[in-house]
Design brief:
2 copies of one chain form a homodimer.
Chain A (H helix, E strand, L loop, with lengths): L10 H5 L2 H6 L20 H9 L2 H6 L1 H15 L4 E2 L6 H5 L4 E4 L3 E4 L6 H5 L11 H16 L4 E6 L1 H10 L7 H9 L1 H25 L3 E5 L8 H20 L5 E4 L7 H4 L6 E3 L6 H8 L4 E6 L8 H15 L5 E5 L9 H15 L7
Helix pairs in contact in A: 5-8, 9-10, 9-11, 10-11, 11-12, 15-16
Chain lengths: ~350, ~350
């Protein structure tokens, strides 16, 4: 494989990859595609590893995390890898131990309950945050760069981490974290301040270790009213991204249920805004603004549909943005655990073929 | 209490109530307010009844359902009652038996799995759908009309009922129902056709029994992409509302996570569009269009906040629409079960006081 931008494996070949060009809203030879949660449970190769090792062992062993990161890239021909890691593990490095359950993955051993709990937290130096994931990034970025492909690093958004820290795990209505933010604004801002430093430092360290782009998963920010998001979350998201921006790599922000706050999200200091499937992508791009790339937005459930139904929906998304530079194809959320590899493979191939720019005859 | 529009307890006094005037986008003496799930678990009076009776007994005993309907209206001075009923019970009358669990309320005993299951369903005559709820409506509307207040009847939207019928109960990702709608469009449309007739007939019967307005709770429609909503759900919602429109009473449609489909929802044939808290109310009104009233949209979590924080958020909503005729104040979803009666009471009083139109000096 050769690249227009440089010698294979060279920094410029990676920098001129379709994914990184789309992050900068430059034309690509085909619409780049990667999929949230592309590595992991839906893949047989992952399940085979999981038979032999615990989830936490896979997460904390750099060679294995690297292998899992590469699995979907090599299997499907995706345009980027995303490091196999977990958004919660950085919490441990600032003093919030996790428990690893078989079903739910990591949950908080002792959720935040008072101001005192927050005062006990400390923000580690960048390279002391999930050092095993940083090692995995070093390995995986080298492998991907050899393929002229970029690696995405990521962190949970400050709000999403705060929600886990207060609720103790996943929560449907998020009433505890909302009660805290509305009842004790000072306590809330203290918590969000340490979390935004943690997140910013983690992203910075990932870029230093070799990540070519960084995604903030503020997955749950859409549970808030626009006014509450603007006042109680956005300033801290901005701070985290400001710290990360020193790395000089593209920044992506993603959340679900965000149709009412997309215009606010794009002011956080990012290059790319991830969009879930609940809004038309072109309308979302209007809300986000022309100065940003967008990433999305196929309903993950389409992967469970017959191939023709899935591809019709993918085609409709591609046709709606009509090859406008700055579109990165993705799902509107993660790959469902029981999606088939055949469906994923067909989707990736279709996106590449349908969006490929014809090469002029020589 | 007297009304501008007619003698107490007369049909015109009810018709000129602030709630029904707002449904028609006519000026009101104060912004009307009612709250989704205003009757039920958060109220001590309800809990007292619940100590003595099962949930299903309360639901199916007209005198008790009437009593529960009136409890919040009398306690808080709300502008409308909504019949104490359950969106799932009509399913039973078309051949889908429910099981009543202590925690989750009714769930489906035998979820829909095949086309054969759908062919076995039948749509009952309007007055054969939840006859106990129709009796409760007869009792409650008489009581409310004596107070010059209207009663709201309701049904689940065809999609929300289909989701329950296929998933068997509440579901986070709705992957089963999405798989069905995407995989077997004919089966899907057959299911939605019987459900829209069921829903339309149920609403019609409720109006005939005395309901002064009808709300369609298509609570889960926001889980779909706009394109899927438009093609696979909206035509059936329209059909249900078309049947209900023969009653000649205001129709309200509500869902959550709908910021991306509000413009589609308003084409379904309703007078009022309910808006959740994830979008600014004024922006939502722009998407819905000027020919519709809107209902919403305080984050229910605000009821768990200190009173001043809750009222600041309510004030911001009222101030944003600035008394424009056609705003009905409500939460963006139901009252949380552990909200306090004091919070609810303070909210209702504040909305009335802050929005009251000054009476000119005599």
């Amino acid at each position: 494989m050769t690249s227009a931008g440089g010698v294979d494996g060279s920094p410029s070949a990676v920098s001129e990859s379709n994914f990184l060009r789309a992050c900068r809203r430059l034309p690509a030879t085909a619409t780049p595609i990667w999929l949230m949660r592309q590595a992991g449970r839906h893949m047989t190769a992952y399940q085979d590893l999981r038979q032999q090792h615990s989830f936490i062992h896979l997460l904390t062993t750099p060679e294995l995390a690297c292998e899992i990161t590469l699995q979907p890239v090599d299997r499907y021909g995706l345009d980027a890898g995303i490091i196999f890691a977990d958004i919660l593990t950085p919490l441990e490095d600032m003093g919030l131990p996790l428990e690893y359950t078989e079903d739910r993955g990591p949950v908080l051993a002792r959720p935040i309950e008072s101001r005192g709990d927050i005062d006990n937290l400390h923000v580690p130096a960048p390279d002391a945050i999930t050092p095993y994931s940083l090692d995995a990034i070093r390995l995986a970025s080298r492998e991907l760069h050899n393929r002229n492909l970029p690696l995405i690093g990521f962190a949970g958004g400050p709000f999403t981490l705060a929600s886990y820290a207060v609720e103790g795990g996943s929560s449907r209505d998020q009433l505890k974290v909302k009660a805290l933010m509305m009842s004790e604004p000072d306590t809330w801002h203290a918590l969000m301040t340490v979390l935004s430093e943690l997140v910013g430092n983690s992203l910075l360290a990932q870029a230093a270790a070799g990540a070519d782009a960084l995604q903030l998963f503020d997955s749950w920010a859409g549970i808030l009213s626009p006014a509450d998001y603007a006042e109680l979350v956005l300033p801290h998201t901005k701070r985290a991204l400001e710290i990360a921006s020193a790395a000089g790599v593209p920044l992506i922000q993603f959340g679900t249920d965000t149709a009412g706050i997309l215009d606010l999200m794009s002011t956080a200091g990012v290059d790319v805004v991830g969009v879930d499937w609940r809004i038309d992508l072109l309308r979302a791009w209007e809300l986000v603004g022309p100065d940003y790339a967008v990433q999305g937005n196929l309903d993950p459930a389409a992967l469970m549909a017959p191939i023709d139904q899935m591809l019709a929906r993918a085609k409709s998304i591609l046709d709606s943005v009509a090859g406008r530079p700055g579109h990165i194809f993705n799902l509107g959320h993660g790959v469902p655990p029981n999606a088939t590899e055949d469906s994923v493979s067909r989707l990736v191939d279709f996106v590449h073929e349908h969006s490929a720019v014809p090469v002029p005859n020589a």
